[in-house]
Amino acid sequence: MSITLLAIESSCDETAAAVCCAGQILSNIIASQEIHSRYGGVVPELASRAHIQHIVPVVDQALKTAGCELSSMNAIAFTQSPGLIGSLLVGAQFAKSLALSLNIPLIAVHHMQAHVLANLIAVAQDQQPAFPFLCLTVSGGHTQIIVCSSPTNLKVIGETMDDAAGEAFDKSAKMLGLPYPGGPLIDRYATSGNPERFKFPEPKIPGLNFSFSGLKTAILYFLQEEKEKDPEFIEKNLPDICASIQGRIISILLNKLKKAAAETGIRDVCLAGGVAANKGLRKAFQETGSNNGWRTFIPKMEYCTDNAAMIAITGYYKYLN
To answer: Are 86 and 45 in contact (CB under 8 A)?
Structure first.
């Protein structure tokens, strides 16, 4: 039975819609919001208003790109949580209205579950991770290690106790005077820098949990001290600073992931979330996998950042379940 569903994602500052048929993504349309760059971060009220403006054109374009009519949908999926409450409400109420008017099922999707299942999008069966698999999910608001036993059975075995890795990137970038969003800029500058130049601490957190607040504080004090000696310190050393910060964030993530793989014995390991678009992390993750005998999986770049395709594939498996 070919199940076709429309999915809507509106958890933060991207309005997205996708159409999925029989587990294949037919369209994945995303409207980003540029206005937040003026303020150095996402402004929730502005995000909500932009979602209201974008949602009808985005859904319309997703249907046209997929070559589908709204009347042919078997279900509507939407992001229920987590996210900005005003932004989530726009997508949720729009999805509810569509499902009610079409008299078809409405499927609520957890945003972080969707990031994990992005690893199942548009790849052949032999190129998919085998259940159970481990997934390191790294985004602006979450950092988690998850055991995925099936598409609908996921268990968090480690998570951040304070800041997420994405926050550590963006807040570090702000300290360096880089514009929002700063995480991708750190990644870009790091490619020409020396990650061994400056030493930042790795927090000693028991178990499989993470902490990035201490690292953020260490970076702040380090920059303050160096700028007192030389006001142009950041400008003169930006690539090395970025490479050193990125190197430490990546080592914190991968050291915990290695521990999780050793404790669980799971050898199929995935990466997911917005920070999975970081080139330094992707390379280090694959190298770590090769050194430890893992099979490693990373979604396509377009499925790492917030998108509706991951909501669609999760809604599809929830529908089948």
So the answer is: yes
